Amino acid sequence: MTPPVVLTIAGSDSGGGAGIQADLKTFAALGAFGTSVITAITAQNTLGVTAIHPVPADIVAAQLDAVLSDLPVAAVKVGMISDPAVAKVIASRVDDLPNLVVDPVLVATAGSRLGEAAVVGVLLAYPCVVTPNRHEAGALLGRRVETTEEMISAAAELAARGPRAVVVTGSELALDVLHWDGKTTLLRGEPVATANNHGSGCTFSSAIAVRLAAGDPVPVAVAAAKEYVNRGLRGGATWELGAGPGPLDHFGWSV
C-alpha cells in the first residue's frame, strides 16, 4: 500500500535531534513518506546553535514547487522560518498545502534564537494547526504565558487570529491546551523525568501532520501525537548522546 506523503518545511539540524531530521524520522516511524523543503542550514548540536545560514527564498520556492508538482502531498508541517520572504513564499502557496501544521520555532531547546514572532505570525491567518510551546505563545502575543490559565487564554486568543486549531504545549506537568472548534480541552499526560527533550516540539507537530494525512480529526491527531512524543521521551530518557539535552527515541528502540 502506498504511504501518505507528508512534507516538512523547516531548518536542518546538523546534530540530528530537531528540525528536518526529527521531522523525517517521525514521518518514517509513523508510516508516512517524508519529503522536505529546507529553509535554513544550522550548525548545531545538543549544546546549542553556533551558526545559521538561511536558504534564499527563491531556492525555498524551487524546492517547494518541485515537491508539489510531482508528489501527492497529504499534509505539511512548517517549522523554522526566519526570513519574511520565505514566509511570503509559503503563504502564496497555502492553497496547495493541505492539513497545514505550523510549529512556530523561535528558540531552540538550548536557548538559541532561531526565528522571529512577527515572521512566523504571518502564517497564523491561514487555516492551520498551530503548536507553540507556552514561551512561543507568549512571544506571539507579546506577554508572558506560564500558568495553565494563561495557556488557556493564549490558545483562545491565538485561535481568534484565524488558525484551524491551536495547541499550547510546554508544561512541566505534561499538560497541554487544545483550542479547536470554539472549545478548549486540557490534554493531560504522564511527565517524563529526562533532560533529553531536544526536538520534542518538532516531533509533536510532525506527528500531528502524519495523523491528519491519515484522516484523523484534529483532536484525535493531537492526542496521538502527544502519546508518540511521550513514548519518544521515555525511550530516550537514559540516552547519553552529547553533553546537552539529547534527542527523543523516534523509532522505539529503547521502549
UniProtKB/TrEMBL annotation:
SUPFAM superfamilies from the UniProt entry = Ribokinase-like
Highest taxon of the lineage: Bacteria
What GO annotations for molecular function exist for this entry? hydroxymethylpyrimidine kinase activity; phosphomethylpyrimidine kinase activity
The Pyridoxamine kinase/Phosphomethylpyrimidine kinase domain, residue ranges:
13-248
Q: In which pathway does it act?
A: Cofactor biosynthesis; thiamine diphosphate biosynthesis; 4-amino-2-methyl-5-diphosphomethylpyrimidine from 5-amino-1-(5-phospho-D-ribosyl)imidazole: step 3/3
Enzyme Commission identifier(s):
2.7.1.49, 2.7.4.7
Q: What reaction is this protein's catalytic activity?
A: 4-amino-2-methyl-5-(phosphooxymethyl)pyrimidine + ATP = 4-amino-2-methyl-5-(diphosphooxymethyl)pyrimidine + ADP; 4-amino-5-hydroxymethyl-2-methylpyrimidine + ATP = 4-amino-2-methyl-5-(phosphooxymethyl)pyrimidine + ADP + H(+)
Keyword Signal carried by entry: no
Q: Does the keyword Translocase apply?
A: no
Alphabetized, the UniProt keywords read: Kinase, Thiamine biosynthesis, Transferase
**UniProt function note:** Catalyzes the phosphorylation of hydroxymethylpyrimidine phosphate (HMP-P) to HMP-PP, and of HMP to HMP-P.
Q: What is this protein called?
A: Bifunctional hydroxymethylpyrimidine kinase/phosphomethylpyrimidine kinase
UniProt source species: Actinoplanes sandaracinus
Taxonomic lineage from the root: Bacteria, Bacillati, Actinomycetota, Actinomycetes, Micromonosporales
